[in-house]
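ok trying this again, last paste got cut off
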Amino acid sequence: MGASSCLSSSAVALFTGDRHRQKNRNSSSLPSRRRGIRVICCASNDRVKSSRSCTELVAERLPMPMLAEDDTIFASNGMMSFVPFKETNGTKVDSTRGIGIAGFLEGKQLLVTGATGFLAKVLVEKILRIAPDVGKIYVLIKADDKEAAVKRLEFEMINTELFRCLREIHGKDYHEFMSSKLVPVIGNIREANVGIDTELADEISKEVDVIINSAAITAFDERYDVALDTNTIGPFRLMSFARRCQKLKLFLHVSTAYVNGQRQGRILEKPFGMGDTIKRETSPEFSAKAAPILDIESEIRLAFSSAKTSWDAPLVQKMKDLGLERAKIHGWQDSYVFTKAMGEMVIDCMRGDIPVVTIRPSIVESTYLEPFPGWMEGNRMMDPVVLQYGKGQLTGFLADPNAVLDVVPADMVVSAMVAAMAKHGSRSNPGMHIYQITSSVVNPLAIQDLAKLIFQHFSAFPCMDAKGRPITVSPIKFFDDANEFSAYVSTDAVRRNERVAAAISNEKISRRLKSFCLRSVEQAKYLAKIYQPYTFYGGRFDNTNTQELMVEMSEEERRSFGFDVGSIDWEHYISDVHVPGLRRHVMKGRGRSTEPQQLGAIP
């Protein structure tokens, strides 16, 4: 399906900044599929095995007459998923030979957007370390000129701690190696032709094999027009460029599992159709005619017309409120996941015969193992709460203690990305392929268990106050009412301020402390407000496609590109890896414990 059948000509002009549309690729029919039966057990060490006990378990829980020959039952950690057998061009997948990840990456030319962001940096590092014979990686960077782009590449990627393993591998040749692989490209996904110079765009379109879109606005409360421009219109611009690429084998789009909005229960890995709205699914009181209709063009026009009505200070809040309002009307939590969902719809509508992989990770946090445990950059979703708690500034939070917080380490996400890229990029199989890299079904982490682990960590290794005294923490209190939580944090802040003020005779310092306490209260209320849809979330993300992808990998591939989320030891990851990594890479050692050498397995 071409762009013209997805969007009107005026919308195309709005998206691209001109009225020149790309020539449509010819669509081809999807390959035929048939069903079959396989019984596979996957142990926690990623080794695939078949066993009589596993087969008997399946027979007990799933009547065999329901199955067809060669279908798959995937059993892992007590969970079972039914997976229809898949064919590719009439050939069965041979899991003993694997997907062929290394062979696929050899010599491939990649274009990566959002490459200076957290997840894409981990991806680039992984590819360069595991597949050094990969071709060029074109890195789209916002910059005024080439010199500025090169400086950003060096400062934000090449010279960062994340790449230290590569520095050790290549030694004195490190910079030469990186320069031969990474090509900074001045561009911006919010501009026509993604902001790439015409001549360079023509060159890249003749060379690139895989496009990886990792650019996104991830703030939950961003201005609606800004979020739309990056998360919805941005994919349109990039897919328009992809349709010009002569050798393109795959378009890989990084989304989020939370595009599933307010869906409840077990949520399957299925694509959106253009105009799908969660409200129709989750609100049975709406009839087919009464349900709100999602028209992406109308949403864009509404956002940009509203933004142009005024440029005074209240405009920012007005546009944030508009995004939240529109998201909730259609069944999404906020403008972030709403605009990301619309981005998926646009890509699926435009893809034609381009194979597309959409990666939907949940809450991406620090690395589990590679290139070393605990690396992270910036505050991820749950980290502001963790830091405020550890510093004694937050003793309670608005959350359902029994709810599951779906967390995945960044290195597992990128390993799944590379495996999916190789699988679908090496086969002539156009279509939209969804992979949810998630933990809530196969290895759920309850919020109360997370809170307990964080409490244990900061009790054993407390942060220090300005005078070097350990900050004592108590078990976190949970609230299910926003007003009660607001009253609690206000009262708690007053008590803390009074205790500190009583020990200080300097009035100026006392005023500063009072101001700081007030700011911390407002920050806590703000975090509770924007996180509430996630700390009371009732959905669990199915990851059957992701599990099946792991089954298709060879043992060697699983060792190099493992992403068995079911094998994560949460106590080890939270207490020994993630929180120490947060303190090292985000807090930069401020408030350091008296025993820093025990802060996790971070080399």
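PB: full thing came through this time. The radius of gyration is 25 Å.
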